[in-house]
Amino acid sequence: MALYAELHRHLGGSVVPRVLWRYFQRHSEDMVSRFNDYSTFEEFYTKPRNTLDEYLELHTLVESVQTVETLPYFIYRLLRGAYIFENLAYLELRYTPYLRTPEHLSQSERIDKMREIVEVVGKASQIPEYPIVTSQILCMHARLPYEVNKAIVDLAAENKNFVCGVDVAGGDSYYAERLEEWIQLYNYALSLGVKTTGHLYETTAGCYPELLPCLMRIGHGIQVPLLHPELLPELAQRGQCLEVCPTTYIKTGTLEDIRQLKTVFDRCFEAGVDIAICTDNAGLHNVRLPFEYENLLTYDIINFQQLQACQDAAFKHAFAWPYGQRPASLLNGILNTPPVLVPTP
Question: What is the DSSP letter of 341?
Answer without folding.
Answer: P
